[in-house]
Automatic annotation (TrEMBL):
This is Glycosyltransferase family 9 protein. InterPro entries: Glyco_trans_9, LPS_LOS_Heptosyltrfase. It holds the Pfam family Glyco_transf_9. CDD domains: GT9_LPS_heptosyltransferase. SUPFAM superfamilies: UDP-Glycosyltransferase/glycogen phosphorylase. Keywords: Glycosyltransferase, Transferase.
Length: 347
């Protein structure tokens, strides 16, 4: 039995978009053991994933303490993997290939003066479709050695029916009516530069809720709670907006999103979760987040808008500041796309 280790400890979006590597290797080696290394707060998202046998989590304490981190990597690599793919390719992640030198394939990204523990250093492709396509390029050394790689671009979040039911009951207790459309609104972001003008966001939310007799959910992490509550207050504490459905983990957030009809808002990890659940999603991209890269596997069910869309359409010069560029995206430009998606996917 082949033993494969994939290292991708970063944030939600990166970790989800790298799972097509797991999907492709599962199809290529149906009976292999495939282990996935991620940060501990993200790890629950990959529980029960058909393409992942074991989720290995790096704790916050291990991230901060180099001795504990090295001990963890040493312990993990005692399994003697046949293939190690270091998608991170940092001095820290390279420790897996250093301690796992018995692996026939030790694959990492090519970087100057680095990767001495790799058997294969992969350069980033000059042309790629999106971020998933770039990640799958890490399998090229296996293909070049004669292995018939069964490429699969799918990325997904897998929940049980009981998990979805449990969250639906919690949402019902909070006052949500499942006979009306439910929108999950991403009003905030972990990175401030990704946050669309809150005034525009509030206008968009009001229009959607009024037009479709819908309900909105403001989800949040503990650090974002006050921001969400403030926006709710600024909207007059509308009864069709719910900021009272708590999620205690990233997996519970996925359960919440699985019970929504549509995701709308700032681009980020939660939108990738929505797409992984195949909940119709619409993302608003800041000027510093490239839609082509991060809207992987884009289709009519999962769409987005970025300032470059407007710049190309109007054939105008790029504004001088990040703020001016982001202001090109207005509720009036977003709403027709939401209307189209509602007509196609929401009853």
């Amino acid at each position: 039995m082949k033993k494969i280790l994939i290292v991708r400890f970063k944030q939600i979006g990166d970790s989800l978009l790298a799972t097509p590597i797991c999907e492709s290797l599962r199809k290529t080696y149906p009976h292999a053991r495939i282990d996935y290394v991620v940060y501990d707060h993200i790890a629950p998202l990959f529980e029960g994933h058909p393409a992942i046998d074991n989720v290995i989590s790096i704790t916050k304490e291990e991230r901060k303490n180099p001795f504990k981190y090295a001990a963890k990597v040493w312990k993990v690599t005692r399994l003697k993997y046949d293939i190690i793919i270091d998608i991170m390719s940092t001095p820290k992640s390279e420790l897996f290939t250093l301690f796992g030198r018995s692996a026939e394939y030790r694959i990492g990204r090519w970087k100057p003066k680095r990767g001495y523990t790799y058997t294969h250093s992969v350069k980033e492709p000059e042309v790629s479709r999106d971020k998933v396509d770039k990640f799958l390029h890490m399998l090229k050394p296996l293909e070049d050695s004669g292995i018939d790689i069964k490429y699969d671009t799918t990325y997904r979040v897998v929940l049980t029916d009981n998990e979805k039911k449990m969250m639906k009951e919690r949402m019902t207790e909070a006052g949500i009516d499942f006979n009306k459309p439910i929108f999950a609104f991403a009003i905030n972001s972990r990175r401030p530069e990704k946050i669309w003008n809150p005034e525009n966001m509030k206008k968009l939310i009001i229009t959607i809720l009024d037009k479709y007799n819908a309900q909105g959910i403001f989800y949040y992490s503990p650090a974002e709670k006050e921001f969400a509550k403030n926006i709710h207050r600024e909207l007059g504490d509308r009864e069709d907006i719910f900021s009272n459905v708590t999620t205690r983990s990233i997996r519970e957030l996925a359960m919440l999103l699985s019970n929504c009809d549509m995701f709308v808002g700032n681009e980020g990890g939660p939108r990738h979760i929505a797409q992984g659940l195949d909940i119709p999603s619409f993302a608003i991209f800041s000027p510093r987040a490239e839609k082509k890269e991060w809207l992987s596997n884009a289709n009519d069910r999962h769409r987005g808008i970025e300032p470059d869309d407007i710049i190309r359409e109007l054939k105008i010069e790029r504004p001088e500041t990040h703020k001016e560029e982001y202001e090109l995206i207005t509720p009036e430009r977003v709403l027709p796309i939401i209307d189209e998606m509602m007509g196609s996917y929401i009853n």
